[in-house]
Amino acid sequence: MQTIDVKRLADEQSRGEIDLIDVRMPTEFRGVHAECARNVPLDSLNPDQVMASRKSSADRPLYVICQSGARSAQACKKFRDAGFDNIVDVEGGTTAWERAGLPVVRGKKAFPLMRQVQLTAGFLTVLGVVLAYLVHPNFVGLSAFIGAGLMFAGATGFCPMANAIAKMPWNQCQGSSCST
């Protein structure tokens, strides 16, 4: 996989227009993003559509950024699997871009998805224990189910609960509210 650090990418930008997509959730993108980035969330990423909608020449690289590098690597793999090779992962993501003092756009901050998952998992675990104690012992199965889900997410990197929470209305933004 081709990679580039944020300083080199900024140098590329100073020499001309770059095509940079940010694959984070719209609410994360709205909170802070590289000034030159456009949002194409990973969960709805269609490599063929992205490549067809590019403003720049198809032979120029497409740069992919996320928060720290994990989701952009997944997006780059999707592009490679679809037959596109000139895809470059931005090392360190938006965190590195911001730390380097490069231009960002700041907007409304969102409650981070992983904290939402932690709160939900914790609540459901405690609820299962309380219901098992007060109502029926079989409710302990709720806590066991949540624990198994957390183990699955930790082992595979795929979290069904995070995917479900990401689709909740409070994690979506509509129209102009997505850009700032």
From TrEMBL:
Record SMART domains: RHOD
Listed InterPro entries: Rhodanese-like_dom, Rhodanese-like_dom_sf, Thiosulfate_ST/Rhodanese-like, YgaP-like_TM
Residue intervals of the Rhodanese domain: 14-106
Transmembrane segments: 117-136, 142-162
Alphabetized UniProt keyword annotations: Membrane, Transmembrane, Transmembrane helix
SUPFAM superfamilies attached to this UniProt entry: Rhodanese/Cell cycle control phosphatase (SSF52821)
Top-level taxon: Bacteria
Entries under PROSITE patterns matching the protein: RHODANESE_3 (PS50206)
Name this polypeptide is given: Inner membrane protein YgaP
Organism of origin: Neorhodopirellula pilleata
